[in-house]
Amino acid sequence: PASILLLAGVDGSLVMRRLLRRGSDGKIQCVLIRQLGAELPSESDIPITCLHVDSPLDALFCGDASAVCSIVRPFRVHLLSAGAITTA
Length: 88
Description:
This protein is mainly β. It contains one helix and six strands. It is globular.
């Protein structure tokens, strides 16, 4: 099983990475899924200070240092198109 890691940047960007354990040696592997910058509806160069994933709404809420909350929706599309998750 893999986990998704969301990293908020001080430049207003968002990085999505997949964490998984390699079977051969058991080391943790960190794979880039997608990097969002200009795709986010907030202004650039303003640090993201809060992230919240709301599964029922299929949305990612990004709060920044200027007290603006942006919504990335539909959120699963970003993960599915990058092959990070699969549907059952």
